[in-house]
Design a protein that fits this description.
single chain, 540 residues, mainly beta, 4-stranded antiparallel beta sheet, 1 helix, 38 strands, 38% strand
Length: 540
């Protein structure tokens, strides 16, 4: 039987506390409220039954089901916490420091036995990035990057290194999800003209020239993000450069690669140029969604052959979120965008709702697959902090705004294992709510004083492309009316004018029109024709 409600954990300058999820939204008694501003970190176990947090003095572990304190550790400087998948180990990390005389500091990565409270092992981990060891889901193996090697431990015995994966300067690795056989994806950056590459291995077969399951090499990669699908059959690699040498993008250049454990690999061909904002796997492991291209960005679902399955058109979006059951997809525009969300039924490719969560800095699906959490948190935004609970049909079920002198730092759902909440039939009608729906304020475009008394012309900065199933089908087009035909000709004339260099002589427009494709962008007299346009300049 599924639990009635997941908990919501809230951390801010008011302290740390928990809230009962929908439909109650009352403060929970599982965790006594921790007042003050000293709470820097908290975490749930993977199944949501354990909760650990730091209050600036100690790290505490409680049982969510029994509401009892299990352990308390004197680790006041801890800023990172993580449970192993089966709740056997709690990993803690503190910033690494050295003494004034230059001697090495003490180990700052501790691994504690959750059952006994004893410290199993302590390591020196200088960087905060990728600080936590990676476990397989059954905790049979555990891996961490040590001096450009991947060290493997078995059955949580951290005193003996069971295996090592050694390549030239391994920068990053990702352990596959799911049961045995375990797989690992490793990334080695290129150097001295050699390309970067990602390789897939099956544990513990690391030796030999043909040990790798798959290999994909590429240039233009200062860093990569590797994403396994849930069934551990393929990896998506987002390769990024810090600087785009062509000058097309301020944010560098990104490419998307697909690597399968059967040895197949490909570059995912994205129909629109520009940055790759987000890539996410569906939980069914047979498709993925990419959000890419200069604004307004495109969103497309691809299959395992990297062929486009459905095109959502363009819009103000930079993120994608599949529901836990994989049957609903949210496309959203957060950060410097206005927070518009599109909620899609990906079984029928039908739009469910288009709510707007303005100023949101955080988004998360509830484990029940029905509710959505959006929040505005500091330090990303220090004003209008608060959070909202939505139903995917667009209704706001709960809203909390912190006082003006208070900051919200973090808010998150209690996690649950897969299968605890069954998938429900999708509904398209907005569920009832006591809170009014928030209509976004439509900002009017600035008009200079000279144009304020003149008729407004409908002009768009960008021509947005509709979703694939909303485009007019060929053969079903109706004949254009005289007015529409006239507007179409005007539009084509404007397009043609942009390809010409126009100079003004009195009331006439003198144009230099390129007659050879090679002459575009140059003023070579050999390839340009001098002509006079009969169109008044005011219409161009």
């Amino acid at each position: 039987m599924a639990p009635s409600t997941p908990l919501l954990t809230v951390r801010g300058s008011e302290g740390l506390y928990m809230v009962n999820g929908p439909p109650h939204f009352t403060e929970s008694t599982v965790l006594p409220r921790e007042s003050g501003k000293n709470c820097k970190v908290y975490t749930f176990s993977k199944d949501g039954t354990l909760f650990a947090w730091g209050n600036g003095e100690k790290i505490n572990i409680i049982s969510v089901t029994n509401k009892g304190l299990l352990h308390s550790f004197d680790l006041p400087k801890t800023v990172c916490l993580e449970f192993s998948p089966k709740n056997t180990v709690l990993a803690t990390w503190q910033p690494y420091t050295t003494s004034k005389d230059g001697t090495a500091g003490v180990p700052n990565l501790q691994l504690y036995d959750v059952k006994t409270g004893t410290c199993l092992k302590a390591f020196i981990q200088k960087k905060m990035q990728n600080w936590c060891p990676s476990w397989s889901e059954d905790e049979t193996i555990c891996a961490r990057n040590v001096n450009n090697e991947v060290h493997f431990f078995e059955n949580n015995n951290f005193n003996t290194t069971a295996n090592k994966l050694h390549l030239q300067k391994i920068n990053d690795f990702v352990l596959s999800p799911g049961p045995q056989p375990y797989k690992v994806a490793v990334y080695v950056p290129g150097s001295k003209g050699a390309p970067s590459f990602v390789r897939l291995y099956k544990y513990p077969n690391f030796d030999g020239p043909h040990a790798a399951l798959a290999n994909k090499s590429f240039f233009k990669a200062d860093k990569v993000t590797m994403l396994w699908n849930k069934k551990a059959t393929a990896v998506l690699v987002i390769a990024s450069t810090d600087v785009d040498k062509t000058g097309a993008s301020y944010y560098g250049e990104q490419t998307l690669h697909y690597i399968a454990t059967n040895g197949e690999s490909a570059v995912v061909q994205l129909p629109k140029t520009g940055p790759i904002y987000d890539v996410i796997w569906n939980s069914n492991s047979t498709e993925f969604c990419a959000v890419y291209g200069f604004m307004p960005a495109k969103a497309t679902i691809f299959n395992l052959k990297c062929d486009p399955v459905f095109d959502f058109g363009t819009g103000p979006r930079n993120a994608a979120y599949y529901s836990p059951h994989g049957h609903i997809l949210v496309l959203a525009g957060f950060g410097n965008l206005r927070g518009q969300m599109e909620v899609w039924d990906v079984k029928n490719y039908k739009l469910i709702s288009k709510p707007v969560a303005s100023d949101s800095t955080y988004f998360a699906w509830c484990p029940d697959g029905e509710h959505i959490l959006t929040a505005t948190c500091a330090p990303r935004l220090r004003v209008n902090n608060g959070y909202k609970i939505w139903h995917y049909t667009g209704s706001i079920l709960h809203k909390y705004d912190v006082p003006s002198n208070v900051e919200l730092w973090q808010v998150s759902w209690q996690p649950f294992l897969d299968g605890i909440f069954p998938a429900k039939t999708i509904t398209y009608q907005a569920v009832p709510s006591d809170l009014p729906s928030e209509e976004p304020k439509t900002a009017t475009a600035y008009r200079p004083p000279a144009l304020r008394n003149k008729p407004i012309t409908n002009s768009k900065l960008h021509e947005e492309e509709p979703p694939q199933n909303m485009k007019p089908q060929p053969g079903n087009d109706k004949p254009l009316s005289k007015t529409a035909l006239k507007n179409q000709r005007k539009h084509e004339a404007k397009k043609a004018a942009k390809q010409a260099h126009i100079f003004r002589f009195g009331n006439l427009g003198v144009t230099l029109v390129p007659c050879c494709p090679d002459a575009l962008g140059t003023l070579n007299k050999r390839f340009w024709i001098l002509g006079v346009l009969c169109i008044p300049l005011g219409t161009l």
